[in-house]
């Protein structure tokens, strides 16, 4: 019973900040208590993450015969490098597209013939994220 209630509690705590937002949409009022709901949900999730391991409901221990062997430091650094290459490349692509897309829209509104030229710059910004993803695959699988 407890193994069903605790994940349900986690889902409720994660969905709790949406309550004042939905109430603000349906009533037309701004959601003033959203920050309080966010803090309560965060505190509840943190408390749940503390209680679950202490109560023995989840465990990181594995038996010696299982296929899930402990990771080495090299494996951990490999995953960290892959995550950093994808994440930082995506942030860079967001910055590039955030600057290029409004300029492209402005150029197209003044001269519709400039659409093809302006889209090249937006696509070049998106290419940065793809390069980061390719590098992370190279780190993980080579």
Automatic annotation (TrEMBL):
Annotated TM spans? 33-58, 79-107, 119-141
| Gene3D superfamilies referenced in this protein's UniProt entry, alphabetically | lithium bound rotor ring of v- atpase
Domain V-ATPase proteolipid subunit C-like: start-end pairs: 80-139
Q: Sorted alphabetically, which keywords does the UniProt record give?
A: Ion transport, Membrane, Transmembrane, Transmembrane helix, Transport
**Any keyword Cytoplasm?**
no
Q: How is this protein situated with respect to the membrane?
A: Multi-pass membrane protein
Where does it reside? Answer: Membrane
Predominant location: membrane
Cite the Pfam families for this sequence: ATP-synt_C (PF00137)
Q: Member of which family?
A: Belongs to the V-ATPase proteolipid subunit family.
Listed name of the protein: ATPase
